[in-house]
Design goal:
It is a single chain. The protein is of the alpha/beta class. The chain is 36% helix and 31% strand. The protein has 2 domains: 2-214, Rossmann fold; 224-308, Alpha-Beta Plaits (2-Layer Sandwich).
């Protein structure tokens, strides 16, 4: 069972939000939608959930032999970016209401509520009014409402919003547990480090178009840039030397004594080191695989440059 998105397009008045976009989401995976504000992620999510329909192209999902043009509500859990809970009601009443709204009996709903509240260290707040909880704890309650009815598909829009690093890690564990239970998770997020830990595959969007698509390893191969060198020098670096030594390389000055250099798969580290040492006395040198955060920044910058040409 795969969710197939084939060449969809969506326009609002004179704005084209989605431009002939194609991808697929495999059953049981964590799939990330990435992109800056205005990339088209929200428009895409509205179509995946059936709130709107594509102007052209097709979304298809076959369940038990029946073809659907969106993820049907009876099998979907959804976390909107804006909370839809009731602050005057207790945590338990909020959770029971949304569970029963999705057809879960009260006994099962209470069992599920207690299970997830305990996982998030909130069981002792079950009878407190939601408004008395911190923003982060309210976000965790919102997350529970999306999964309390044990859906097969879950769409989470900014699940890490309002959470400190400790609670972000708890959400990472939470999402991993959903996957282990067989749920398919589609998440939209800006926290690249969290996405890198979780996502089996991802779609990076910009201005309604697909920029990069696949697993992290596949994306690294697509961009052809795999290693990032950071060199720090004892003295300031002369910019004219950089232009001479690295005319064909992707580099930038982090500050007047620090150079960052991105190497493609075809460029050797040894060749780069000989040029780096020609710049002056090194005080430190670090090498690492280019992470998702840097891949994201580079891809968006390059795509924007192409659009503006």
């Amino acid at each position: 069972m795969e969710l197939l998105v084939n060449n969809i397009k969506k326009c609002y008045a004179k704005v084209t939000a989605i431009k002939e976009l194609s991808f697929k989401v495999k059953q049981g995976e964590i799939f990330a939608l990435l992109g800056p504000n205005g990339a088209g992620k929200s428009s895409l999510v509205r179509m995946l959930t059936g709130f709107t329909s594509p102007d052209s192209g097709e979304i298809s999902l076959t369940i038990d032999g029946e073809k659907h043009t969106s993820i049907p509500s009876y099998t979907l859990g959804y976390l909107p970016e804006d909370r839809g809970l009731y602050p005057e009601k207790t945590v338990s009443k909020n959770l029971l209401y949304f569970a029963q709204l999705n057809g879960v009996d009260k006994k099962t709903a209470l069992q599920q509520a207690k299970y997830w509240l305990e996982r998030f260290d909130l069981l002792d707040r079950i009878d407190d009014q939601l408004k008395t909880l911190s923003k982060g704890n309210q976000q965790k309650v919102q997350l529970i409402t999306a999964v309390i009815h044990q859906p097969k598909w879950v769409i989470l829009d900014e699940p890490f919003s309002g959470l400190d690093p400790i609670n972000q890690e708890k959400v990472v564990i939470f999402l991993s547990e959903l996957k282990a239970q067989g749920m398919t998770v589609i998440l939209s997020a800006h926290q690249m480090a969290m996405v890198e830990k979780l996502a089996d595959r991802m779609l990076l969007m910009n201005l309604g178009e697909a920029v990069l698509y696949g697993s992290l390893e596949e994306i690294q191969q697509q961009v052809g840039s795999t290693t990032q060198l950071t060199a720090q020098f004892a003295e300031s670096i002369a910019s004219d030397q950089l232009e001479q030594l690295f005319s064909e390389a992707d580099y930038c000055l982090v500050d007047h004594k620090t150079l960052s250099l991105n190497l493609s798969a075809q460029q050797s580290i040894n060749g780069a080191l000989s040029k780096i040492t020609a710049l002056g006395n090194l005080t430190s040198l670090h090498s690492k695989k280019m992470d998702l955060h840097q891949l994201y920044l580079n891809a968006i910058a390059n795509h924007g440059a192409l659009i503006n040409e």
